Amino acid sequence: MPSLRELQDAVRRSIVDCDNVDAVAHVVADGITPQERLSVYRNTFIQTLIRALRLSYPAVDQLVGTEFFDATAREYIAQQPPRSGYLEEFGGDFSAFLGRFTPCVSVPYLPDVAQLEWAVSCALHASDAPALTIASLRAVEATEYAWLSFVPHPSVSMIRTDYPADTIWHAVLMDDDAALTAIDLSDGPVCLMVQRGVSGVQVDRVDGTVWRFSRALCSGGMLGLALDDHPGIDATAALAGLLTQGCFAGFSLASHTGSIQSPTELP
Amino acid sequence: MSLSQFGRCTTLGPIPPSAGVGLRFPHHQIFVDTRPPVGWLEVHAENYMGGGTPLRFLETLRRDYPVSLHGIGLSLGSADGLDLIHLERLRLASERIEPGLISEHLSWSVAGHTYLADLLPLPMTEEALDVVCQHVEQAQTRLGRRILLENPSTYLQFSHSTIPEWEFLSTVAARTGCGILCDVNNIYVSAQNHGWDASAYLRALPPAAIGEIHLAGHSVVALDSGAMLRIDDHGSHVAPAVWALYEEALARFGPVPTLIEWDTHIPSLDVLIEEATHAECCLSHSAPRNDHAVLT
Fold first, then answer.
1. Domain containing A16: what range?
2. What pLDDT is stored for residue B3 in this prediction?
3. Cβ contact B272:B30 at 8 Å
4. For labelling, which of A220, B14, B40, B255 has a CA lying 20 to 30 Å from the CA of A188?
5. pLDDT the model gives residue B11
6. Do residues A151 and A259 share a domain?
7. A245 in the same domain as A139
8. What pTM value is reported for the model?
């Protein structure tokens, strides 16, 4: 008699790897073969996960067509099945998978579109958090600015794609054939900021330097260090943009000695 | 106390013994716009573990309807132990939504760090019984409240099972103090698939533990071999035989909060409300249970 863990592992191998060897021995036939009974669960597993991927990647689905998407999704599911029952987290590395998946090489911008769609999906489902306001920074002394670091809003992603993923994504989802034809694939790389705003998810193209500075801050880097790394940036304007867009959910002040570069004023 | 506060208090109490419907995304807007007359709503916990628009809709409806939180991903029967991150997500969702009931399933979905995206049957063994009881207790402790455990639809049985499912479920309830979510459609589907006596299943459940009933449609599928299997797909009207079994359940359990679930081929809200009205009609004719009468 198998232990519960042995049995569950055998059923997992049957469902995910189509390896029925150990599972069938423990299933009652009763008019239907154990293989057929197990295939009911395998079918639900595959169909549920394909549906979840299609919901997260509607533009990729439209670009390659349903049949190709399903076949690609099956391969991905076999290689990287979900780890938890919270399926909103499933599919985060689909973009990297598409980049390696040989049948997709003829659509070189597909991983980029997938990367953008994942950022959009994450923004849609991210937990709620009040945005940090400019007013709440008033209490910080000017001499302390350099030691400020920010907590990014849970819905914010900063991505950079080799191809113009934003225009492709938009044209595909809008079913805009004219826009799709007009796309110049050499119009990249593009730096994008994705977040959930009051009226839905926003995808904004950002200047490269501002994007790198913003990404440093969104990664929790100290303001003074971000300034050191991006000389010449108009920090006040960049910060004002990030704050008014609600990109941060909080801030902290590092305890410090010595001095690093500091902005002269905050927005 | 203002009227709005009063309204909020009434929807925060226990789920009433009336008919409710499963709230699904395609009906969010029409629910908010029309506030149809159903007794209560049930949502899948996993659909509201993040923030954004879905949670806004639910928070709006929460003011006018009692809400039950129904988990599908906790995998109480996993030998590997509970996913503590998932349990914490469920606790946070419960904290935000303040549901009248929380329920999960007598099944497992996770093995070897892989989520199998279905409610898989357990071997009905003493070992599995211990595992489920331990995890139900762990979940109840973390959530700070009693949960209901639902009987699954199953398409296979394990040859080393020694305990009938109805006895397994009743024992978990007795040992852990959890309640039972009696899914009448699942009893019917499993009974047909395995040659059980559905009425005897109902008679074996302890009436005092029954906290909720589920009703849904199922389909009859011909497998490649030509054999027929009933599949619980929540994609059609409740079958006549299941309505009949529901009447038996009400006769035994008294009026219990009853949910209409419809998850695939989701119909217009009118169709869902019609099903709920049917259930409400059955509920209004069912006599209160004796032990309830004694208690009150």
1. 1-107
2. 34
3. no
4. A220
5. 75
6. yes
7. yes
8. 0.92
